């Protein structure tokens, strides 16, 4: 029987970019000790206090159908958090609770794109972006950024592709590059979006992980609140990746229709998980800062190690839990470097090519293991790159 083109073409007929990761996991399953610097998974578990709140809510009976838009108290808490962080008036009517940030990305594109519409996104990109767009029946159109620009998007590059586009997806702080978009960059993006009457989908799941400068939500810019859908999540801010708890922030009419979509897809997020999320948010900013602290610390460790050599160059790591390294001086592609590093030293990193054309010749390192083994792995990686670069 024939399956739909929409589902069989989610990956565009090519690789999903996770080959090195899959090999590393196969090696681990076979008993090899592999140092994984691949995915954005905290090395600390979800707080026992949050899990206790989740357990208590489940035992209290919040295991039946929950309110599809999200329980009112959680929507209020998310709205208050967003308003406090961005300065934009936000109420529960601007909030839909979703099954994590990925579900929010899917729903946001479903809200603004019809089948066949052009949907722009920045390259480098998080690996699921083009597949999410294809799964909605839209046409993914990458907008290339450049290492020479620090991977900051150029407004003119977006404008050149904006004709007949319905949406633009951005991500700051950025995965995979660690770049935080500047105020000038975001102003240029807002100008193009308004000039071409597009929706902006702003993925802000790393908004608590800013190491240099500050995070500006484009929803806060003049004229942008009515055309911006913000994707948020508790995965990164509260180490709750497996809880699958996220949200969309947007204008009330869009949220009302997104609630209809939620009613006809997953029918809401389990109530006991929402209760745990409410408990976590009520712990305040200090908890979020504590979750982010290890990545700030490992960034400093990495920059110190890299400062002692001149072969590998880091894209300025301004935010998020990743480090993007330019490995082109070795003469290898990011994919070749990653496979050779894995086979020779059992260190797994993600090739830049997994995240699009613009990141070719780079690797992404997740700063997601404890400090000492992280530093040791990075020093081994630097030594490996030196061996490749300096002839015997």
From TrEMBL:
InterPro entries: Aminotransferase_I/II_large (IPR004839), AspAT/PAT-like (IPR050596), NHTrfase_class1_PyrdxlP-BS (IPR004838), PyrdxlP-dep_Trfase (IPR015424), PyrdxlP-dep_Trfase_major (IPR015421)
Alphabetized Pfam families for the sequence: Aminotran_1_2 (PF00155)
Known cofactor(s): pyridoxal 5'-phosphate
EC number(s) recorded for this UniProt protein: 2.6.1.-
Record-linked PROSITE patterns: AA_TRANSFER_CLASS_1 (PS00105)
This protein's UniProt keywords: Aminotransferase, Pyridoxal phosphate, Pyruvate, Transferase
Catalytic activity: L-aspartate + 2-oxoglutarate = oxaloacetate + L-glutamate
GO BP: any one term: amino acid metabolic process
SUPFAM superfamilies linked to this entry: PLP-dependent transferases
Molecular functions per Gene Ontology: L-aspartate:2-oxoglutarate aminotransferase activity; pyridoxal phosphate binding
Domain Aminotransferase class I/classII large span(s) in chain numbering: 33-379
Family membership noted in the UniProt record: Belongs to the class-I pyridoxal-phosphate-dependent aminotransferase family.
Name of the protein: Aminotransferase
């Amino acid at each position: 029987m024939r399956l739909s083109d929409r589902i069989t073409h989610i990956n565009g007929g090519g690789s999903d970019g996770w080959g090195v990761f899959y090999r590393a996991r196969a090696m681990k399953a076979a008993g090899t000790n592999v140092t994984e610097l691949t995915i954005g998974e905290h090395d600390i578990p979800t707080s026992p206090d949050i899990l206790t709140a989740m357990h208590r809510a489940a035992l209290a009976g919040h295991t039946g159908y929950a309110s599809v838009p999200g329980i009112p108290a959680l929507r209020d808490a998310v709205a208050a958090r967003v308003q406090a962080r961005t300065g934009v008036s936000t109420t529960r009517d601007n909030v839909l609770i979703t099954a994590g940030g990925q579900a929010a990305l899917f729903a946001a594109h479903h809200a603004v794109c019809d089948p066949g519409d052009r949907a722009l996104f920045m390259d480098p990109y998080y690996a699921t972006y083009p597949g999410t767009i294809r799964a909605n029946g839209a046409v993914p159109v990458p907008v290339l950024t450049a290492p020479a620009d620090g991977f900051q998007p150029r407004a003119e590059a977006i404008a050149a592709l904006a004709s007949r586009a319905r949406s633009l997806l951005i991500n700051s702080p950025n995965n995979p590059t660690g770049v935080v978009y500047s105020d000038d960059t975001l102003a240029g993006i807002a100008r193009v979006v308004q000039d071409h009457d597009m929706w902006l989908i702003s993925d802000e799941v790393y908004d608590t992980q800013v190491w240099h400068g500050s995070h500006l939500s484009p929803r806060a810019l003049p004229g942008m609140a009515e055309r911006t859908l913000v994707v948020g999540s508790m995965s990164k801010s509260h180490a709750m990746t497996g809880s699958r708890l996220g949200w969309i922030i947007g204008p009330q009419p869009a949220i009302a229709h997104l609630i209809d979509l939620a009613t006809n897809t997953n029918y809401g997020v389990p109530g006991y998980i929402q209760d745990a999320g409410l408990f976590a948010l009520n712990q305040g900013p200090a908890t979020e800062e504590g979750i982010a602290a290890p990545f700030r610390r490992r960034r400093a460790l990495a920059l110190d190690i890299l400062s002692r050599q001149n072969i590998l160059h880091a894209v300025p790591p301004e935010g998020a839990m990743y480090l993007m390294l330019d490995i082109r001086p070795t003469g290898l592609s990011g994919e070749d470097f990653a496979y050779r590093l894995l086979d020779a030293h059992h260190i797994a990193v993600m090739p830049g090519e997994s995240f699009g054309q613009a990141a070719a010749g780079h690797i992404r390192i997740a700063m997601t293991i404890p400090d000492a083994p992280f530093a040791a792995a990075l020093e081994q990686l630097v030594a490996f790159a030196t061996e490749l670069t300096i002839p015997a």
